[in-house]
Amino acid sequence: QVQLVESGGGSAQSGGSLRLSCTTSGYTYSRYCMAWVRQAPGKEREGVANIKDDGTTSYADSVKGRFTISQDNAKNTLYLQMNSLKPEDTAMYYCATGPFCFSASRPSYPYWGQGTQVTVSS
């Protein structure tokens, strides 16, 4: 059974930083894409960043230069370092994974965590 557990969300001031973590277990496929997806109230889910098994990363235009996705394979942990936060970054952030990466507008990953809330105040 695949399990993803996020942590590290919370509140920050505009311009501040937060780091999200996602520990994974039970994923046995050799090929994978791990992603951070967010959903703000009243909006669709939006892919924020992803990283493939070969280390290739991809970011949504809205977070390029501010967010960094990384992974520690030894710890089975995915990270999202979020700097220069803006109020529009406020959302529930989910960790997701599957054999393939999806576009930011259609993050249809088969496995999801429960989410962690990020709130940025101006």
Question: Helices and strands, in N-to-C order?
Answer: EEEEEEEEEEE
Radius of gyration: 13 Å
> Helical percent range?
under 10%
- How does the major sheet shape up? 7 strands, mixed
**Oligomer category:** single chain
Q: How many helix segments?
A: 0
- Contiguous low-pLDDT stretches (5 residues minimum) are none
Strand % is over 45%
Write down the overall geometry: globular
Structural class: mainly beta
Strand segment count: 11
Distance between the termini: 40 Å
Q: Mean of the pLDDT scores? A: 96
Task: Write up what this structure looks like.
This protein has strands spanning 3-7, 10-13, 18-25, 33-39, 46-52, 57-59, 67-72, 77-82, 91-98, 111-112, 116-121. It is globular, with a radius of gyration of 13 Å. The strands form two sheets. Strands 2, 4, 5, 6, 9, 10 and 11 form a seven-stranded mixed beta sheet that branches. It is mostly beta strands and 122 residues long. The chain is 0% helix and 51% strand. The model has no long low-confidence stretch (mean pLDDT 96).
